[in-house]
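Re: the request from the purification team.
They wanted to know what the chain is likely to look like in 3D before they choose a buffer screen. I agreed to run a prediction and write the result into the notebook, where they can find it.
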Amino acid sequence: MGRLLGPACRNCRREGIKLMLKSIRCETAKCPMEKEYRNNPPGMHMWRRGKEKAYGIRLREKQKVKRYYGVLEKQFRRIFRLAERARANTGVALLCLLERRLDNVLYKAGMMGSRRTARQAIVHGHIRVNGHRVDRPSYLVQTGERVGVRESEKSMKFIREQIGDEGARSPQSWLQVDFKKPEIVVMTLPTRDDVQIPVEEQLIVEFCSR
C-alpha cells in the first residue's frame, strides 16, 4: 500500500491554506501557517516565482484536494473516473465521493484527530463496518451503514485516546455519532455544502479532462 511521506506542514505552506494534517497542532500557534516568516511557499527562491498560468492554477486546485484528503495520484484518478460516470455534476460528485471515504468519515465524526491517524486505525484492523472488518481507508460508506470499533481492549483504548473530549470537534450533520459505544451511523450521503475546504472543483475537472 502506498504511503504519503514527507513533512506535512510543507504541504500546507505550498497550498497556502491549513489542510489540517497534524490534528490539534494545526489549531495552535505552533502551526507554521501562523508564523509570518514561514507563511509562504517552501523553497529558498520562492520570492522569484512569477505569476501562475492557467495550467498551474488548475494543478494547484487538484493538488490541494489530493493533499487535503490524503490520496495518491492513482487513487485520485480512480475516484475521478467514478465521478465522470455519475449523473450529477462531475466536480461535485468528485468531492462527495472523497467525503465518503472511510478515513474521512472517522475524521469528520470527531473520532480521529486527523485523516492520517484514521488511516492508521483502519489498516491496523481497529475499525468495523456493519460488524465486519474493513482495512481499506478508501472504502466508500453508504447510507445506513454503521461504523464501529473492534471489541477488544487494545482497540477501545486507542479510540478513546483519540476521541479525548467529546466536544473537541462536532460531527457533521450527515453523521450520527455515539461517543459512548463508540459508533457512527451514516444518516445521508454528504453534499457539496459538507466540503470544508475552499476549492473550485470545476478547475479540477478541466485539468483532469484535458
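For the purification team: The radius of gyration is 18 Å.
Please add any questions underneath this entry.
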